[in-house]
Specification:
Helix content: over 70%
Distance between the termini: 17 Å
Structural class: mainly alpha
Low-confidence stretches: none
Mean pLDDT: 87
CATH topology: Four Helix Bundle (Hemerythrin (Met), subunit A)
Radius of gyration: 15 Å
CATH superfamily: Flagellar protein FliS
Number of strands: 0
């Protein structure tokens, strides 16, 4: 993962303090958390018929997913990076469809997929590469 790219993208998303000291592993966790949070906010906005805010939250989630895609290191990550790239592309597509059709089930699907990625990422020992 390219930590510098992830850091830049996360800062542009209005990140709070602590980003500057975060490891590349932690930055990806923060990006995943941010995308999931925005999907939940979009879902709440949809339920409240606040379509403008729903669109903003989905747009923000897609921007974060694009930052996650940009942070992939295809040289080191190999097949895993390729698979994540395709998955992130699919999630972005689902979010676009959810935005256009106001479909809560698509927001749920995108959230479920990102949650699975986050669970896998959280299970990685960030110090394993240094051993």
């Amino acid at each position: 993962m390219n930590g510098a790219t992830a850091l830049k993208q996360y800062q542009q998303m209005g990140a709070h303090s602590g980003v500057m000291d975060a490891s590349p592993h932690r930055l990806i966790q923060m990006l995943l958390d941010g995308a999931l949070s925005r999907i939940l906010s979009a879902k709440a906005s949809l339920r409240q018929s606040n379509i403008a805010q729903k669109g903003e939250q989905i747009g923000s989630a897609i921007s974060i997913i694009e930052a996650l895609k940009a942070s992939l290191d295809f040289k080191q990550g190999g097949e895993v990076s390729k698979n994540l790239d395709a998955l992130y592309e699919y999630i972005s597509h689902i979010l676009l469809q959810a935005n256009m059709s106001n479909d809560e089930s698509l927001l749920d699907e995108a959230g479920r997929l990102l949650s699975e990625v986050k669970m896998g990422w959280d299970a990685i020992d960030p110090n394993a590469a240094q051993r």
